[in-house]
Amino acid sequence: MVNKKAAKKPAKPYVIIRAEKAGCFAGFLEEYDRAIATAVLTQSRRLWYWVGAASLSQLAMEGSSNPSGCKFPPVVSRQEILGVIEVINTTEKAQNSIEGTPVWRA
N or C: which end of the chain has fewer CB within 10 A? Predict the structure, then answer.
């Protein structure tokens, strides 16, 4: 008997991206083309300024120990990022920290 249930689509990874001239972003990786260094993120936030993590690597693994000191603007529903030079997978703890950081507005 054939199982007619549709196969579950794997969840998109939550990543941090560093772009050559645009800064750093966190969000769900929808597309990534290494050949042209372009990525598409959904539910993304620009990581404009952070404290409580020594580097993007620590932020991706542990999140921020001081989210209220971070400056992460509001979520953007979809964003194409050019000049991608680094893609870092995050842990669930880090994702929760980034998503839970209060929205920074000027």
Answer: N
